Amino acid sequence: MEVDIKWWSVIAVIIISLLAFLIIDANTSVKSIEGCKTARIRPFPQQFFTWAGIVQLNDSKQYQPSCL
């Protein structure tokens, strides 16, 4: 009987730790997605509407946020 309690305790601890890991991982993913959303919503200067401006922004890595 004591062996059964020990195994069920181990299984419960593993399940609880797995759920905690999944919840923490989901929260960090949501935070990064929200950060990417705010980085994408920005005013567009005149450089976004000319080919030379797009190339210049792309070379300086300002055309798209790094999270994309």
How would the blueprint of this fold be written?
Elements: H1 2-40, H2 51-59
Helix content: over 70%
Write down how many β-strands occur, each being a DSSP E stretch of 2 or more residues.
0
Morphology call: rod-shaped
- The proportion of strand residues reads under 5%
Sheet with the most strands, sense and barrel status: none
Quaternary status: single chain
What radius of gyration results from the CA coordinates? 24 Å
Mean pLDDT: 87
The CA-CA distance between the termini, in Å, is 54 Å
Number of continuous helical runs: 2
* N-to-C series of helices and strands: HH
> Structural class, judged by helices and strands?
mainly alpha
Instruction: Give unreliable regions as ranges.
Output: none
